[in-house]
Amino acid sequence: MLPPRSDDTEARLPDTRDDGGGADAREIGSLLQTWIGIKVDAVDDLVDEAREKVTAIPRWPYLAQLVGELMIRLSVLEAELRELRQAQERRR
Fold first, then answer.
1. What is the pLDDT of residues 8-54, one digit of tens each?
2. Gap between the Cα atoms of 71 and 75, Å rounded
3. In 3D, which of 37, 36, 41, 15 has the Cα closest to residue 27?
4. Nearest-angstrom CA–CA distance, 55 and 58
């Protein structure tokens, strides 16, 4: 169970700067803000990298066109090979 939320940070973390044994709430906040900033920057870098990868993927119509062209070329090549084999058989 969580303790009741208090907006007064000073009430939860006493200022013990005078005796040197405790933590200052402002210092903790500053460190926390720096850490969160570093994490947010890392996430931003990952998002940018993912966007670059997505934009590098070719579009579907382009891929379909390439596959179609390859299929046509393959069928033409198979027909030519068949003709060459038939011509070779006739020469024997």
1. 555 555 555 555 566 788 899 999 999 999 999 999 999 999 999 99
2. 6
3. 15
4. 8
